[in-house]
Design brief:
Helix content: under 10%
Oligomer: single chain
Strand order of the largest sheet: 2-1-6
Strand content: 35-45%
Largest sheet: 3 strands, antiparallel
Order of helices and strands: EEEEEE
Shape: globular
Number of strands: 6
């Protein structure tokens, strides 16, 4: 899940659509806008964290 903090202080989370695996083994998360453009959620200004859907609380970051 990719979590984003909104201007009003609320938090929204969305499932990742994919992981991009590079030749060196690095894995990059991919989220998608409503238009279908995939991007790295960490590049968005209001990005908070990535986490597994089964995680509980902010200390269980995935």
């Amino acid at each position: 899940m990719a979590e984003y903090k909104q201007d009003d202080g609320s938090v929204e989370a969305y499932p990742l659509v994919a992981w991009l695996v590079l030749a060196d083994g690095e894995m990059l998360p991919r989220d998608a806008w409503g238009e279908g453009d995939a991007h790295d959620p960490r590049d968005v200004g209001n990005f908070q964290r990535l986490y597994h859907p089964d995680a509980v609380g902010p200390d269980r970051v995935g």
